[in-house]
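Hey, can you fold this one?
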Amino acid sequence: MTAKLPNRRLLGLAAATLAVAAATATPVTAAPSVTSPTATVSPTSAAPGSRVSLTLRGCATRAARATSTAFGDARLVPATGDGTALFGSATVYNNASTGAHSVTFDCGDGSRITVSLQVTPGAARGGTGGSIGGANPALIAVGGTLAASALGAGVWVMRRRTRTT
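Sure. Predicted structure:
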């Protein structure tokens, strides 16, 4: 008994199928790398009573928290619909000690990152609207002149009205 060789057409079809499969196959890629979260505190140094902004990127969750001895706990939530970054804010305690304080960001899935916040001596600047700037003598003179003129005009109008009645 002799073994029959496969038909040449069948071999050609098999070779063509393998060539097409090899040409159209998608390359095998490695699994996407898991990036570790990144966190920022802005500003990096703040006085007691100041507000700081907290940003966390790279979490797989849609909510996280930041904890520090400088401000306690702060909740972080997505500010955009895609949830790629989580944001929050906190107020530095009025009695926070000066120096470096650790801020620990917790994604809620077990991943954590710690950054530093420097608490500086002094107090937070209030919104004084520029009223604490340097005194300009020319502006003080103009303001005083306008105030005195308004007062004089008011007195003149009031005296004139009382005479005619």
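The radius of gyration is 36 Å. Let me know if you want another pass with a different chain boundary.
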